[in-house]
Automatic annotation (TrEMBL):
Residues 57-103 are annotated as: Disordered. Residues 75-86 have a biased composition (Basic and acidic residues). NCBIfam families: cyaB. Residues 1-207 form the CYTH domain. This is Adenylyl cyclase CyaB. SUPFAM superfamilies: CYTH-like phosphatases. PANTHER family: CYTH DOMAIN-CONTAINING PROTEIN, SI:CH211-156B7.4.
Length: 208
């Protein structure tokens, strides 16, 4: 699986307004709070190999007027669900986006999997926390792009505000087409693909 992703800095309040008027079919996908813990490996340096391994804890949010019956008893008043995933990200595969091979699976408990990694010699390196709003997006005219994209509005603690446009695909031969589609979504939101940042949120946090 390949994740094609383009990320640009943006003022989220402005982008929210543009989502309503852009020539796109936009479907809100809800808001989440994500806490990502990244690990260093005992056998090689992930910063040097441009890889990443993380445990992500994610709380899905609901509106105050619509509390979920599935909310965990120890969650906040508007949390509808909690999920934990382990993700491996390979090196960037091109010089024009943040496209990577990505392998991900759900696990039952973050602390337990952290103990597994720790006993294998992995060490927690840093934690990134962000609030995300997600929107499923396709061109309103039904033209050209065969991909459905996710537009994510990110407020990242100690890093700033960003917009990500991403999609997933199986076939590496479709990378260029998917990347160009992501650029078109950015332009529809009056954002410039040339402003994209290929550094991860982890990298931005460590640089700050």
């Amino acid at each position: 699986m390949y994740e094609v992703e383009v990320k640009v800095p943006a003022t989220l309040e402005v982008v929210r307004a543009r989502l309503e008027d852009a020539p796109l079919e936009v479907t809100p996908q809800g808001a989440v709070v994500q806490t990502d813990t990244y690990y260093d490996a005992p056998h090689r340096s992930f910063p040097e190999t441009d890889e990443a391994l993380r445990i992500r804890s994610e709380h899905h949010q609901s509106s105050p007027a619509e509390p979920s019956e599935t909310a965990e008893s120890d969650a906040g008043p508007h949390d509808t669900a909690h999920e934990t995933r382990v993700t491996y990200k390979g090196p960037l595969v091109d010089e024009e986006s943040k496209t990577r091979e990505e392998i991900e699976t759900t696990v039952g408990d973050a602390e337990t999997f952290d103990a597994v990694l720790t006993n294998l010699g992995f060490e927690a390196a840093a934690t990134v926390r962000k609030e995300r709003e997600r929107y499923a997006v396709v061109p309103a005219d039904g033209a050209a792009d065969e991909f459905e994209f996710t537009v994510t509005l990110d407020a990242v603690d100690d890093v700033g505000e960003y917009v990500e446009v991403e999609t997933e695909l199986e076939d590496e031969r479709a990378l260029e087409s998917a990347r160009n589609g992501a650029y078109n979504v950015l332009r529809a939101l009056e954002l410039d693909p040339d402003d994209q940042i290929r550094t991860s949120y982890l990298g931005l946090l460590l640089e700050s």
